[in-house]
Design goal:
alpha/beta, TIM Barrel, 11 strands, 12% strand, binds iron/sulfur cluster
Length: 418
C-alpha cells in the first residue's frame, strides 16, 4: 500500500486554522486515500447522440464492440466493493449511459452489493421521467446533468444539437420530483464565462443540490476551445466561493478552489475583502442584479472534498482502462486483467500522483500543494508532464514570492497571494 501523502512544514491543513471547534473548510475522506478511492467514475459507453464542443470522450453515435459487457461491468462493481466499507461512490457516466440497454440492471446490481450509485446521463430523448424512475427504483441516489448555457440558444449551440436544453431541464425537474439528488455541471470556458451568473441563478432557481464548475481541460474536443487565463480562473473561483454562501458549489479539475476557500476564510477572519479582477466584478454585478446574492444564506458552506486524480479519485474507461481521471489519459492497467483494488493501491502512476512532494514547478514549491496540488490533468494536457504546475493557477507560492527580485515582487501576483 502507498504511504500516506507527506505534508510539509508550514503547509495549511485542510481544516484551516486548526481551531478544534471551527467548521471544516475542506473535507477529507473518512479513510486513507492510498487505500481506497472516495469516487469511482465508470464510462459505461462512449455512445452519445450529441456532439459537444468540449467532449473529453470524443463521443460517437454508436456503441463500441470493445465496451465492458454486462459480466465485465458486474465484475468491475465487485472490484469496487472489494475496497471495503465505506464503499466509494460509484458514478456511471458516458457518452450517454442510457445508450446501454442494461443500465437499469447494472444500477440494480451495484445497489444490491452495497454501492451508492449515481448516473450522469446526457440531455437526449432518452432522459425521460420513465427512464429516470427506472434508475431511481433500481437504487440510484443521484443524477448529474450538464448545463453550459443559461438559455436554450446558448446551451444548444455549445452542445451542438437543438432541443438539448429543454430535454435537460425536463429531466432535471423530473429527477428532482422523483427524489434524486441533482448535481449540475457547467463547463467553464471562454464560451460560458460571461454567462456564469445567469447559469448560477438558474441552478439556484431550479433547486439543484450542487453546482459544479468544471474548469476545462484542453483534451479531446475541448482542446479546440479558448482557454482562460490564470487570472480569469482566479476570478471564477472567487465567484463560485461567493455563490457558495447561497447554494452548494464545487469545482471539477479546479483543485485550487480549496486554496481560495482557505484564503477567503483567513481574509474574513481579519475582516478583509479579497482583491479580485474585472471579471469577478462583472459576474458579481450581474449576479446581484439577478438577485442571486439575496435571500436565505446557507447556515454552513459546503466544504470542498480533498481528492484529486489518483488520490481518492479513479476513472475506468468504457474498455476497462484505469486512469487517474477521465481527463488524464494515462492508463495504469485494465480491470479485465487486474483487480481495480490492486491497480489503485499499487501502480507506480497512482503512487506517484499521491505524493505531493513529487510535484514540479510552482505546485511543487507551493504551501498549498498537499491540500490542492493543482489539476494533474491540465498539467499533462498542456505540458505533457502530469507532475508539472497547473497552468490555470495564478497563485505565487510564498516561497517563490520571497525570492523574486525586488522590482518584480507582486507584479502579476494574484491579489490573494499578497
Ligand atoms: S500553485 Fe499549484 S498547488 Fe499552489 S495553489 Fe496553485 S495549483 Fe494549487
Amino acid at each position: 500500500m502507498s504511504p500516506a501523502p507527506r505534508r510539509g512544514a508550514g503547509e495549511p491543513r485542510p481544516g484551516g486554522a486548526g481551531k478544534a471547534a471551527a467548521p471544516r473548510l475542506v473535507r477529507t475522506p473518512r479513510h486513507a486515500v492510498a487505500d481506497r478511492p472516495f469516487l469511482v467514475i465508470w464510462e459505461a459507453t462512449r455512445a452519445c447522440p450529441l456532439a459537444c464542443a468540449h467532449c473529453r470522450a470524443e463521443a460517437d453515435p454508436l456503441r463500441s464492440p470493445h465496451e465492458l459487457d454486462g459480466a465485465q461491468a458486474r465484475s468491475l462493481m465487485d472490484q469496487i466493493a472489494a475496497f471495503g466499507r465505506p464503499h466509494p461512490l460509484f458514478v456511471i457516466t458516458g457518452g450517454d449511459p442510457f445508450q446501454r440497454p442494461d443500465l437499469v440492471e447494472l444500477v440494480a446490481y451495484g445497489t444490491s452489493i452495497g454501492l451508492r450509485v449515481a448516473v450522469s446521463p446526457s440531455g437526449t430523448p432518452t432522459l425521460t421521467r420513465e427512464n429516470l424512475t427506472a434508475v431511481r427504483d433500481a437504487g440510484a441516489v443521484a443524477l448529474s446533468l450538464s448545463v453550459d448555457g443559461s438559455t436554450a440558444a446558448r446551451h444548444d449551440t455549445f452542445r451542438g444539437v437543438d432541443g438539448v436544453f429543454d430535454l435537460t431541464l425536463d429531466g432535471w425537474r423530473a429527477a428532482r420530483d422523483l427524489g434524486l439528488k441533482v448535481q449540475i455541471n457547467t463547463t467553464v470556458s471562454r464560451y460560458s464565462l460571461e454567462d456564469l451568473a445567469d447559469i448560477a441563478a438558474l441552478v439556484r432557481r431550479e433547486r439543484a443540490m450542487l453546482w459544479s464548475g468544471f474548469l476545462l481541460v484542453p483534451t479531446g474536443r475541448g482542446a479546440e476551445l479558448d482557454s482562460l487565463t490564470a487570472e480569469e480562473t482566479e476570478d471564477v473561483l472567487h465567484f463560485l466561493y461567493d455563490c457558495g454562501a447561497f447554494m452548494a458549489t464545487k469545482t471539477t479539475e479546479g483543485h485550487h478552489f480549496r486554496r481560495v476557500v482557505l484564503q477567503r476564510a483567513a481574509l474574513a477572519e481579519r475582516g478583509e475583502a479579497p482583491r479580485t479582477g474585472d471579471l469577478h466584478a462583472r459576474l458579481t454585478a450581474r449576479a446581484t442584479a439577478l438577485g442571486l446574492f439575496a435571500g436565505e444564506r446557507r447556515t454552513v458552506r459546503r466544504p470542498p472534498m480533498d481528492v484529486s486524480s489518483g488520490r481518492g479519485f479513479v476513472f475506468v474507461s468504457h474498455t476497462g482502462e484505469v486512469t487517474p481521471s477521465g481527463f488524464l489519459p494515462l492508463s495504469a492497467d485494465n480491470t479485465k486483467h487486474r483487480p481495480l483494488t490492486d491497480i489503485y493501491r499499487e501502480s507506480p502512476l497512482f503512487r506517484v500522483l499521491r505524493d505531493p512532494t513529487l510535484l514540479r514547478g510552482k505546485c511543487g514549491a507551493c504551501e498549498y500543494r498537499s491540500v490542492c496540488g493543482g489539476s494533474r490533468s491540465r498539467a499533462y494536457a498542456v505540458t505533457g508532464d502530469p507532475l508539472a504546475a497547473d497552468p490555470w493557477c495564478a497563485y505565487q507560492p510564498a516561497y517563490q514570492a520571497a525570492f523574486q527580485p525586488k522590482d518584480k515582487k507582486n507584479k502579476g501576483a494574484p491579489p490573494c497571494a499578497q
